Amino acid sequence: MWNLDELPPRGTVYGTLLNYRSTLDALGDQVHAAPYKAAPQAPILYIKPRNTLVGHGDPIRVPVDAPELEMGATLGVVIGRTACRVSADHAMDHVAGYTIMNDVSVPHASFYRPSMRFKCRDSFCPIGPVIVPRQTVANPDALNISVAVDGVVLQTCTTADLIRSVGQLIADITEFMTLHPGDVLSVGVAAGSPRARVGQRACITIDGIGQLDNILIAEETP
Q1: Predicted TM-score (pTM) of this structure
Q2: In the chain, which residues have pLDDT < 50?
């Protein structure tokens, strides 16, 4: 079993796109436009590389060319056992625990394949403050999430709105790739991510998991 105290994670951190019903609903007819012309039939993944990873209390650096950032609150699923072609019924046996992620993004219009420039800037993935063991969370598919900026709650959502449940998401991903101990999988971000600027504080709370708190500062000019 992977060490539950190890944050930031030593494995790969994956983001998932369009796994909330609210996100698909917000796109409306765009989902049926070319080139895809339909809602996704399989998970859409991207990577939050190591340069993006920071912890609870660490600053989020706001680039000069993107003064306003989206705070993408999401549940992080920490893999504890190697998962390859697992069924949804047995997927949770491969989970070590859960944490909070802020999938920070530069506001952008591309919803299927956003540029790394929007998703992968330094400090764009705060994670923490702890990893809660899987056994202590009764149902990861029924967790309330809230996002506050400077103490004002600007978004509430729930993992009950996921298109693919945690178990089903793991099963669908491991059908074509292996997840390893220490990997962290974001279940997705709901529509309406609040935006924040330099000097503001973003706080994400997930029931039973905890509270992730980060202040936004100006990125230093090289």
Answers
A1: 0.92
A2: none
